[in-house]
Design a protein that fits this description.
The complex is a heterodimer of chains A (201) and B (149). Chain A is α+β, with helices and mostly antiparallel strands and 201 residues long. Chain A has 2 domains: 72 residues, no CATH class; 118 residues, Immunoglobulin-like, CATH 2.60.40.10. Chain A is 25% helix and 36% strand. In chain A, β1 and β2 form a beta hairpin. The longest helix of chain A has 27 residues. Chain B is an alpha+beta fold and 149 residues long. Chain B folds into 2 domains: 86 residues, no CATH class; 55 residues, bsu07140 like domains (CRO Repressor). In chain B, strands 2-1-3-4 form a 4-stranded antiparallel beta sheet. Classes of the chains: A alpha+beta (201), B alpha+beta (149). At the A-B interface, α3 of A face α1, β1 and β3 of B.
């Protein structure tokens, strides 16, 4: 019954300076800093835990701030780090795309074709099938004259009004698959321009 | 499956973020805090429901959130450490009319906050009349007045 007695004593005591016996008997007192009085109040205080919590919180605040700044660079999509260009080795096809994207977001993939490749009145543009698995093509401007299957890939044929001029083709895409995927876009029979994207969930 | 996982993720994400933000963040709610809370709610809503506003989906999400909450309260009851981890512990900041400055500044509580709570709850006028002030787990300040002699 001894601990019970101590408990009662500590509860009943209005005075903070309780007896030395009590000081040793109550385990919470062991955690107390030197110079602090034992308490009559029954609070489940744990200063060691509290201090640890505060430290973790401070780190957490820095982490949150860091995350906000990182997001401003575009690592999580739409920002300077994310805006990228790719082209094939000869430089006939140049692609503007976003390196980082989020699932379900829509974006425009811009394909510029150099005048050297637009001598005829149509250009065949081949897009790799793995890319078309990961995205949904909402629309293409200009509309291709035809789209035909080449193995897993798709070849779009775009008519040209003015052969010999630079051509820009825009793909309106919606991202469906999470994770990283890569795409190859080429003029049929040429080296491809490669791009890779990472899609956040 | 998707809606359950999303709801669970949001639950634990908000739990961690609000623990990091600390308990004084939204406890003494100003109008702006309240607006902020509404915006946070608005930001989570599409994640939880997505483009499927069906009754079944909403019911699933709500039941998942409540189920996790019940489960967590059971866990907290069973393991004290989990309770401390999720809710934190109370902290004494005034003892016998003496402010504990270091604790107060880390807990983001000012002398004015303490005096305001003292006035509101006990009509206390001076600091010396406070026996204990405690920052509770809920984020509020509890005042124990000195026994009048």
């Amino acid at each position: 019954m001894k601990p019970r007695h101590d408990e009662l004593a500590s509860l009943a005591s209005d005075n903070a300076r309780v007896s030395a016996v009590n000081r040793n008997a109550k385990p919470e007192n062991a955690r107390r800093q030197p110079g602090e009085d034992p308490r009559s109040i029954e609070v489940d205080e744990d200063m060691a835990w509290q201090r640890r919590t505060w430290t973790i919180q401070r780190f957490g605040w820095f982490a949150m701030g860091g995350l906000v700044l990182t997001a401003l660079t575009g690592v999580f999509g739409y920002g300077p780090v994310s805006w990228q260009e790719a082209s094939d080795p000869v430089g006939l096809v140049r692609i503007e795309y976003e390196r980082f994207q989020r699932q379900g977001s829509e974006f425009t993939l811009r394909v510029d074709v150099a005048p050297e490749a637009t001598a005829e009145n149509a250009i065949p543009l081949r897009v790799s099938g793995t890319f078309l698995d990961a995205v949904e093509v909402k629309g293409i401007a200009p509309e291709p004259r035809e789209a035909r299957s080449l193995g897993g890939d798709v070849e779009y044929v775009f008519p040209l009004a003015q052969p010999g001029q630079p051509v820009t083709i825009r793909f309106a895409l919606k991202l469906r698959e999470v994770g990283s995927h890569s795409a190859e876009i080429r003029l049929s029979g040429r080296e491809p321009a490669r791009l890779s994207q990472f899609i956040y969930p | 499956m998707d809606s359950v996982l999303r709801a669970a993720f949001i639950y634990f994400f908000l739990l961690v973020v609000f623990r990091i933000a600390g308990r004084r963040t939204l406890s003494e709610m100003t109008t702006f805090d309240f607006v902020l809370l509404l915006i946070i709610g608005e930001a989570t809503e599409p994640v939880l429901l997505g483009d499927d506003p069906s009754v079944v989906h909403a019911a699933l999400v709500i039941i998942t959130l409540l189920f996790i909450n019940i489960g967590m309260s059971l866990v907290k009851n069973r393991w004290k450490t989990m309770e401390k981890l999720m809710d934190g512990v109370p902290t004494i900041i005034v003892e016998h009319g003496r402010l504990m400055q270091e604790r107060m500044s880390t807990a983001r509580v000012s002398r004015d906050d303490v005096m305001e709570a003292a006035r509101r709850m006990h009509g206390i006028e001076r600091l010396e009349q406070i026996k204990y002030a405690i920052v509770e787990v809920s984020g509020g300040i509890t005042i124990v007045p000195q026994a009048s002699t």
